[in-house]
RNA sequence: CGCGGGGUAGAGCAAUUGGCAGCUCGCAAGGCUCAUAACCUUGAGGUUGUGGGUUCGAGUCCCACCCCCGCAA
């Protein structure tokens, strides 16, 4: 039976690990070290470590893959194939070389488009109409390897990150389970990517969620869709962070209004953008819980007419 | 002991140096109206997160604890 060594860290990784474990022999699981998380800095192991523990797999949590110890540990597992899903660290070539039949990776974009760490957010931010999942063989460059299988899906105009991610995850699970047996059976010919057409996306930071009200409403809406899961979009009100939790594009046309100014129009809370406007449905002020816009203004009378920055 | 905000009526929020606990919305009853989340009248609702302390008197000051949240990670 083919021996799989699994690399992963996230919830999604854990889900795939579980699915793989039903059909394949998992000789080991490599995941990130436990991290202090939350307000109280409690140490918590990764979702993959938790699942792997439940399933009784050997778990490795190397601080680094660049030393002899990690190399030897992985070598000892004698895996035929690696499956790498959202592991979160670069895997050095000498480790990848230990996989006799290669290392397989899932990337949620239509490679060579959107290589890099934030493909799901980036396609939403750019207002793309379609994306997809690519299963590929890893090489030393990021998302650069030969393609084994690829499938497209459409993006709904109002789809948010969580929804698109869910669709891509479902598709990924289906594709990886389909790809591995076919690949091992030599039914798939790895296809070189067209590297000339490659595009890249970057690591997202908190600052990417800050709203620039001068931008057109449509762009702000895409920003909302892209970052709704994290970091969310936000602005400031009375020198406090105001998270904008739920918005919609509105057809209200505010003429000659300064971008960022809040208006009330037929009981709707509207914010002027550089072009067009946004209706706020739910928001959250620093230190407070999420609330609807209508409730928010009951206790913040000066919100209407204020200018968000 | 990482930094910080907060807990007051069903909801969102006020309450000056400690001095009758309020506003808006919602809710209930009645009225008005062709009519919009309309308008008018009346009303119900609170042990101010919990437990102590100071005081003639505590939402407010002091101590301890519980819970929620923003930052950070």
Topology at a glance:
Elements: E1 3-8, H1 11-21, E2 25-30, E3 35-37, E4 42-44, H2 47-55, E5 59-60, H3 68-77, E6 81-85, H4 93-96, E7 103-107, H5 119-125, E8 130-137, E9 147-154, H6 161-184, H7 217-227, E10 233-237, E11 240-250, E12 262-265, E13 268-272, E14 277-285, E15 291-292, H8 293-299
Parallel strand pairs: 1-2, 1-6, 2-5, 6-7
Antiparallel strand pairs: 3-4, 7-8, 8-9, 10-11, 11-14, 12-13, 13-14, 14-15
The structure holds one RNA strand of 73 nucleotides.
How would you briefly describe this protein structure?
This protein is an alpha/beta fold and 309 residues long. The protein is 27% helix and 27% strand. It binds one RNA strand of 73 nucleotides through β3, β11, β15 and α8.
How many individual helices?
Answer: 8
Overall 3D shape = elongated
Q: Tell me the number of structural domains.
A: 2
Order of helices and strands: EHEEEHEHEHEHEEHHEEEEEEH
List keywords for this structure.
alpha/beta; RNA-binding; 15 strands; Methionyl-tRNA Fmet Formyltransferase, Chain A, domain 2; 309 residues; 2 domains; Rossmann fold; six-stranded antiparallel sheet; 27% strand; seven-stranded mixed sheet
Describe the structure.
The chain has eight helices and 15 strands. It is elongated, with a radius of gyration of 23 Å. Helix content is 27%, strand content 27%. It folds into two domains: 3-197, Rossmann fold (3-Layer(aba) Sandwich); 206-303, Methionyl-tRNA Fmet Formyltransferase, Chain A, domain 2 (Roll), CATH 3.10.25.10. The chain has a seven-stranded mixed beta sheet with strand order 5-2-1-6-7-8-9, sandwiched between helices. It is α/β, with parallel strands linked by helices and 309 residues long. Strand 13 (268-272) and strand 14 (277-285) form a beta hairpin. The longest helix is centred in the middle third of the chain and has 24 residues, at 161-184. The protein has helices at 11-21, 47-55, 68-77, 93-96, 119-125, 161-184, 217-227, 293-299, and strands spanning 3-8, 25-30, 35-37, 42-44, 59-60, 81-85, 103-107, 130-137, 147-154, 233-237, 240-250, 262-265, 268-272, 277-285, 291-292. The protein starts with a strand and ends in a 10-residue tail after the last helix. The protein binds one RNA strand of 73 nucleotides through residues 35-39, 41, 206, 240-241, 243, 266-267, 284-292, 294-301.
């Amino acid at each position: 039976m083919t021996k799989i060594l699994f690399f992963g860290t996230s919830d999604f990784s854990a889900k795939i690990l579980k699915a793989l474990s039903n059909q394949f022999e998992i000789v080991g699981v490599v995941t990130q070290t436990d991290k202090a998380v939350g307000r109280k800095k409690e140490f918590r192991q990764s979702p993959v470590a938790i699942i792997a523990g439940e399933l009784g797999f050997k778990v490795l949590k190397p601080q680094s893959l660049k030393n002899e110890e990690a190399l030897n540990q992985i070598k000892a597992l004698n895996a035929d194939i690696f499956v790498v899903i959202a592991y979160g660290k670069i895997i050095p070539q000498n480790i990848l070389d230990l996989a006799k039949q290669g290392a397989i990776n899932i990337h949620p974009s239509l490679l060579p488009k959107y290589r890099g760490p934030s493909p799901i957010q980036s396609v939403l931010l750019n207002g793309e109409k379609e994306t997809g999942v690519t299963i590929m063989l890893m090489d030393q460059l990021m998302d650069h390897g030969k393609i084994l299988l690829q499938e497209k899906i459409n993006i709904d105009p109002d789809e948010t990150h969580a929804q698109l991610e869910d669709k891509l995850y479902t598709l990924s699970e289906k594709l990886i389970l389909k790809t591995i047996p076919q690949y091992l059976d030599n039914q798939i010919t790895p296809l070189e990517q067209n590297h000339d057409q490659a595009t890249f996306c970057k690591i997202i930071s908190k600052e990417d969620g800050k709203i620039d009200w001068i931008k057109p409403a449509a762009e702000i809406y895409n920003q909302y869709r892209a970052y709704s899961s994290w970091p969310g979009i936000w602005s400031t009100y009375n020198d406090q962070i105001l998270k904008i939790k739920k918005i919609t594009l509105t057809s209200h046309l505010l003429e000659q209004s300064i971008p960022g100014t809040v208006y009330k129009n037929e009981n709707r809370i509207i914010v002027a953008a550089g072009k067009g406007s946004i209706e706020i449905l739910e928001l959250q002020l620093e230190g407070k819980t999420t609330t609807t816009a209508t409730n928010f203004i009951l206790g913040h009378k000066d919100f209407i007419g204020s200018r968000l920055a």
